[in-house]
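pinging the channel bc i need a second pair of eyes. not urgent but kinda urgent?? the chain im working w is below, pasted from the shared doc
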Amino acid sequence: SDDDVKTWLRQNSNPVWHPVAWIGLSPQDSVVAPDLHVQGFLGLGVIDASVFPSQISGHPCVVVIAMAERASDMIK
């Protein structure tokens, strides 16, 4: 039954919190610009999940890896 499934899920699932979206990424009024540089600081960038605009539905690891790949292209 639906109640049995809900009970099983409550007893067997473990929510995991992934800290993301702490500093924000935006062209204006944010700490980090779209080029991943900290606004107002020369040569300082942020390449991690803190620049996500909000929580994503899955594990953030793949998105962080993709962002790092993109950042490496921007640095070259």
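so The mean pLDDT is 85. and The CA atoms of residues 26 and 70 lie 16 Å apart. — does that match what u expected or am i reading it wrong
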